[in-house]
Amino acid sequence: MARSKEFEESEVLHKAMHLFWEQGYEKTSMADLVEHMGIHRRSLYDTFGDKHALYMQAMNRYAQITNTTLEHGVKRSETAREAIQFIFDLMIEGMDNGPAGCLYVNAAVELGLRDNEANAITTEGFIQAEQMLAKIIQQGQEAGEFVSSRNADELAESLHNALIGIRVWKRATPDMDKLRRIAKLSMEILDR
Predict the structure, then answer these.
(1) How far is it, in rounded angstroms, from Cα 65 to Cα 46?
(2) Among the four residues 3, 51, 94, 120, which has the most C-beta atoms within 10 Å?
(3) In the chain, how many domains are there?
(4) Taking the model in full, what pTM does it have?
């Protein structure tokens, strides 16, 4: 008779996501994962596969959480400027009571072009972020909120670059005032 699982998959995947987010892929060992997730090694392999497969699932979990948080915040915003401010605030303040920074940015920096699967996930996430920003910017331009006559896609690339920088700085400094100054100055591009 097969044993039933003694853990909730979603909960232990969430724990793995946090550990990878905090330590990175290379630094996180299988022993770390087993201990942090609170499951047996065999259960980890049977449920999630190897470390790399678990990492990919953790990245997908992170995307779901991030996208849901962003979508809700943007929808609640009354103006395009408020929506973009919400995004910057979220990147500065953090989310999901998680570690500083961003799992996607960490993965892109750590694994970059060495891991095609991780690179594909982060690249797709970055493209989606830029598309979301471009849509918000275009709406703001059409409503007369933003005076910039620049192309919305180019403005989105610039703002996304600033958001990535903020997420990197977030891991390196506790200086929230600095991060807010960067956000404020970055958003001024919408008024030029």
Answers:
(1) 24
(2) 51
(3) 1
(4) 0.90
